[in-house]
Amino acid sequence: MHKAEARPRQHDHPGAAARGAAAASDGGRPRPGLAPPGPMESSAGLALEPSLYTVKAIFILDSFGQRLLAKYYDGTFQSMKEQKIFEKNIFNKTHKTDSEIAFLEGLTIVYKSSIDLFLYVVGNANENELMLMSVLNCLFESLNHMLRKNVEKRTLMENMDGAFLMVDEIVDGGVILESDPQQVVQNVNFRVDDSPLSEHSVTQVLQSAKEQIKWSLLK
After folding, report:
1. For residue 111, what are the contacts with CB-CB under 8 A and spacing of at least 6?
2. Extended strands (E) in 128-185
3. Considering the chain, what is the average pLDDT of its residues?
C-alpha cells in the first residue's frame, strides 16, 4: 500500500476545469458546455487516451470515519470490505491534515471537511486534479443549498434521499455530468417537485434513493 502524500492547497479556480469534461447525457438531456478532454501524458511521457470515466468514487464520512454515503463507479474496490478498508485508510491519512489533495494506492483523492463531515472524490493517479475538485465543490455547494448552509451529519442524515439524487446529477457511472451547483439543485427539484411528475413517480424516485442508502450502509 502506498503512503498517502498530502499536497498544498490548490488556488486555481476549479469551476473552469469542468468545462473540459466529456459531453454526456442524463436521461436523454444533453449537457452543454462540456467538451472532450485533450490527450494527457503519464509521468513516463507516454500519451494517455482521454477517458470519459473521470471519477472512481464519491463518499462522505462522519468525524469517526464511518460511511454515510458512498458511490463507486468501477471495479477498483469490488467488495464492500475493500471499500470500507480504503475509506478508513484515507480517512486516517486526511482527517487531521489541512490539505485538499492526497495520493493513496495509486489514486488521486480530493477532499473537504465541514463540521463533522468529510467529503471525498476519487480519481486515478493521472486524473486532472482540478476536474476532481470541480466535482467536490459542486457536491458541497449543492448540499450547502439543500441543507440551508448547515452541512453537518444530523442535517445530512435527515436529507439523505436528496443527497443521493444530487450525487447522481453530478456523476453518472464515473462520467461528470454537471459542475454547476445551481443546475444540480434545479434538476433535483424538477425530478421531485415538478408538476408533470405524478405522486407515484416521486415515490419511485425517493424509493430508489433509499435503496442506494441501504446498500451503501450495509457491511
Report:
1. 90, 94, 100, 101, 102, 118, 119, 120, 121, 136
2. 171-172, 175-176
3. 78
Q: What residues contact residue 3 under an 8 Å CB cut-off, 6+ apart?
A: 104
Which has the higher per-residue pLDDT, 213 or 41?
213
Angle (CA) 48-31-14 rounded to 5° is 60
Q: Assess contact for 167 and 69: CB atoms under 8 A.
A: yes
Alpha-carbon gap, residue 207 to 200, rounded angstroms: 10
- Residue 202 CB-half CA count within 13 A: 12
Q: How far apart are CA 17 and CA 35, in angstroms?
A: 11
Question: 3-state class of 5 per DSSP?
Answer: coil
Q: Specify the residue for cell string 476519487.
A: 122
Dihedral sign computed on CA atoms, order 88, 89, 91, 96: positive
- The string of DSSP letters for 36-86 reads PPPPEE-TTS-EE---SB--SEEEEEETTS-EEEEEE-SSSS-SHHHHHHH
What's the pLDDT at 191? 72
pTM equals 0.68
CA distance 204 to 215: 17
pLDDT band at 13 (very low <50, low <70, confident <90, very high): very low
Tally helices (H) and strands (E) across the chain: 6, 11
